[in-house]
Amino acid sequence: MATSGRADLFPRGAVDGQRGGNAASLRATAHALARVESAAAVVLVEGISDQIALEAAAAGRGRDLAADRVVIVPMGGAHAIGRFLTRLAPLGDRVRLGGLCDLLEEEIFRRGLATARVGSPRTRADLERLGFHVCVKDLEDELIRALGVPGVEAVLDARGDLRSFRSFQSQPAWGGRDPEAQLHRFLRSSSRRHQRYIRLLVEAAVDRDVLPRPLDGLLAAV
User: Is 102 helix (H, G, I), strand (E, B) or coil?
Assistant: First the structure.
């Protein structure tokens, strides 16, 4: 189905809707939406870190997403999926759809796809057949399990952050926790650190051929 223009497909206010969002998120979403009409595939993800992960995975696999006309759209939260799917509907069959979410948002994605009549996924396998993949429990957890604690610590060490992590581990609130949980919290302790290490850990996973299944499957789907 043809569309009369980007202004009709994504009117003012569509980006992040009522949820708002920081300036970087808004800019990333707007930049992606500006390219969807010429896309061969559109991938809906919760936020910028997911976009960074997919772009790093694609680059590590030698793929040029821009040349393949694959556009990754950070939505500013999983609850926005219904709105974005509705906005993409005028593109019809001209684009392939895909997506990535965390375990806690799996049902939100499933309902959004059903409401937008993209499909009627009842299981995770149904979601994957539609091009939508689920991280268990989330992207950080997938990467920590894929690389193992020593592998993640090696990446931290290579960037001069292992000492900071050891200091974090000694804090009373985290001293007795599992190292996987400690790493998860440390990686998410600031948005800058989070985004930086998402990219670095994905690159390490590609190098070691242990890219988490949701990322691998999503790239194959688009």
Answer: strand
Q: Please report where in the chains the tokens 């993949």 appear, as a residue.
A: 133
- pLDDT tens, position by position, 60-85: 999 999 999 999 999 999 999 999 99
Q: What are the start-end ranges of the H helices in 62-173?
A: 81-88, 106-115, 124-129, 139-158, 162-169
**Global confidence as pTM:** 0.86
Cβ atoms of 216 and 96 closer than 8 Å: no
CA 144 to the chain's CA centroid? 16
Distance CA 216, CA 204 (A): 14
CA 11/CA 87 separation, integer angstroms: 9
Q: How far apart are CA 180 and CA 122, in angstroms?
A: 31
- Which residue reads 């890219």 in tokens? 211
CA distance 173 to 182: 10
CA–CA separation, 184 and 129 (whole Å) = 29
CA pair distance 78, 107, nearest whole angstrom: 10
Q: Would the CA dihedral through 16, 20, 25, 26 be positive or negative?
A: positive
- Alpha carbons 205 and 144: distance in angstroms, whole number: 10
